[in-house]
Each structure stands twice: as C-alpha cells, then as structure tokens.
Amino acid sequence: MKPKANPRLSNKALAFVLAGGRGSRLKELTDNRAKPAVYFGGKTRIVDFALSNALNSGMRKMAIATQYKAHSLIRHCQRGWNFLRAERNEFLDILPASQRMDEAKWYVGTADAVTQNIDIIDSYGVEYIVILAGDHIYKMDYEVMLQQHVDTKADVTIGCLTVPRMEATALGVMHVNDQMQITDFLEKPADPPAIPGDPDHALGSMGIYIFDWQFLRTLLLEDMHDDNSSHDFGHDIIPHIVKNGKAMAHRFQDSCIMSGLETEPYWRDVGTVDAFWQANIDLTLFTPPLDLYDNEWPIWTYAESVPPAKFIHNEDGRRGTAVSSMVSGNCIISGSEVTESLLFTGVRTHSYASLNRVVALPHVDVGRKAELRNCVIDRGVQIPEGMVIGIDSEQDRENGFRVTDKGVVLVTKAMIDAYLARS
Length: 423
Fold this sequence. Notes:
Layout: E1 13-18, E2 39-40, E3 44-45, H1 47-56, E4 61-66, H2 71-80, E5 91-96, H3 110-115, H4 118-124, E6 128-133, E7 137-138, H5 142-151, E8 156-164, E9 172-176, E10 182-187, E11 201-212, H6 213-224, H7 233-244, E12 247-251, E13 267-268, H8 273-282, E14 310-312, E15 314-315, E16 318-319, E17 321-323, E18 326-327, E19 332-334, E20 337-339, E21 342-343, E22 348-349, E23 354-360, E24 365-366, E25 371-377, E26 382-383, E27 388-389, H9 393-398, E28 402-403, E29 409-411, H10 413-422
Parallel strand pairs: 1-4, 1-6, 4-5, 8-12, 14-19, 17-20, 18-21, 19-22, 20-23, 21-23, 22-24, 23-25, 24-26, 25-27, 25-29
Antiparallel strand pairs: 2-3, 6-11, 7-13, 8-11, 9-10, 9-11, 15-16, 28-29
EC number: 2.7.7.27
Pfam family, one: Hexapep_GlmU
Keywords: ATP-binding, Carbohydrate metabolism, Glycogen biosynthesis, Glycogen metabolism, Nucleotide-binding, Nucleotidyltransferase, Transferase
C-alpha cells in the first residue's frame, strides 16, 4: 500500500483572532467600532488581513474573539466570510465576550479570551492553535511558521519583525541565541538586544503565537487560577515559557508574501490616525509598498454588489477627474478634482470640489466648492458646501476637528453636526 502523504499542518490548526480591542489611539474612528473593524484600502476592513492570511495559508478553522463595540465587526464577518462551509469542516466562529465563566468579568486579557473558550476549542479537535492579532496589515503564510514550530519542537513560536535596533524601544523585544531560541522577552527596553550577528537590528514581537493546543490548554488552566496574573500572553504566558520552556522566534521575512512588486516585507500597525492615513495614501503610489492586486494571495472581504465608479462633467474648471488615486465602486466624481486620494465605496464629490491626499470612508458626500487636504473623513460624513479642511490647522481646531501632530485632520459626523449647530 502506498504510504499516505502527510497533510498540511494548517489542516490541523485553528486560527484564533483576538479582535476585542478598542484601539483608542485611532481616536474618534473607533467611537462606534472596534479597531479590527476599521476600514482599510478602499473596500476591506483591517481584520480581513489576518483572516485572509489564515485562509490563504490553508487554514479552514477560524475563530474570532470580540468584545468592544463588536456589532459592525460581527456583521462584517457574517456577510463577508459566510462562504466557509460547515459540512466541509470549514468555519469562522464568532466568540463574543459573554460572561460564560464568571458573571462579574468579561475578557480581562488576551490569554483570558482563549481560556474562556477552552471547551469550544476542544470541540474543534485541532492539534495547533495560531493566535493572531486582528489589527495589523500584512501578508504572511502561516504554514511556514507552523512548519518551523513543529520542526524545532517548540513550546511556543513567536512571529517577529526585524527592525532597526533603536526603533525597537517601543516594542516587545526578543533576545535570542544563535539558534533563534528566545532567552529573554523585554517589554519596550531602553537598550534593545541585537540579533546575533546583526548588531544593528532587533526582533520585535508581532503578537503572533503558535502553540500545541494541549500544551497551551494546560498552561491557561494554571494561569486562570493565578491571582497575580493579568492573564495576558505578552505579560504572563510568554515570559513563563521563555523562563521554563522552549520559545522560538520566527522571522517575518521567512514567511511574508511578496508579489514581486513589493521590495521589502510589509507590516503596518495602523493604530494611530497618522499611521492609518499614511498607509492608505501609500496605496495610491505608482508602486505601492503593499500590493493589493496580487491574485495569488487575495485579501478576502465582504464584496458589496454596487455599480462601477463614474466620472462626470467635462468643462474647464468643472471636470470629474481622479489622478494617482484609488476610487472604489459606487463613487461618483462629479465635476471635481481628486488627487493622491483613496475613496471607499459610495463616495460622492460635487462640482468644483477638490480633494488632495484624502482618505474618504464609505458614503462620504463632499459638497460643491469644498476643498479638502490631508484628512481622514469618517463614514457617512456630509461635507458642507464651500468648506475648507486641511489648509489652516488652527481654523480646523476651531471648527472642532481633530488635528494630529503631523497635521492630518480627522473629521467625523459628530464633529460636522457640532460645527453646523454652532454656525
């Protein structure tokens, strides 16, 4: 009898996405949605990247733990990820914090979010669990990391970014030996340890962890009864394994997906308004640092059924144009000028308006003769006729908009309503 081929490790693994965080550094963008549900790239949400990486890596068992203002995130997953078929042992289970174990507490830490769902994870019958953050932008083949985890017989394998050493002071940093075994885990060190043989770089944690499920299960149950624990992977579980077990580092460049257009591994934490704006605007470049047009590694999402974008009016001073921009479906550029901007689904721009380096979320309406520069416009905002934003920071602040240290202006519906009420 011909021996049976070994199945892909991803078939035996569960992708567990931690998507409960508010993301307070995104300010008013997360007033009504969790950070993983924030829009990105014209039609996707941030969480789609972790889920798409799992799917493209061959993983068909996924779970997502939600907590803070989860409705839009849950609705998005139900609409955009309902193609997985339970009869083929495929699923995306949504696991809201529901006070299942203690009526007085919700998820109190990243590890606790897994602990409270141990019985559900047991029912999946998986050998490995891949813990993922739901709020980063990157493309990565988790199968490569899984293979390293198994080959090295690690207790935990941690995904790591290679960063300039002194830039690692804001990260959790891995101190490793020549075999890439982690000997120490340092949270935001003033003097980050260098990679052996590479004195100018350090390894920063990506918040991606792979465990054998039975090993982690035992550890979580012990942690649950520890009153001194914060029940967090970064603060409690990982340091415990580094001290008492075998923790291995996995370099992101060994498993990142690059289509040929990307010149270096791409990973972004779009956790501030400035970073969010910049990462979206970067997509409009002639050769963007992230290739969203790679059909070999698609980013799956909820694909709305909408008409194509339309550009209307063709006379001097009133011509519908978009240059060096990304314009999504159901947008109408009516006699206005759009430059180096990213417009999400359903945006309307009216005659004589101009937009330069603008990120406009779905269903924004820009009034006639409005002038917008260097700003993020939240979903559903109606910009009044003739309004100027992004030219004078002091005026923008007086109008009630949020202006970042780098001069990017965030505009939400509540801000516009308050402005109109004062006018």
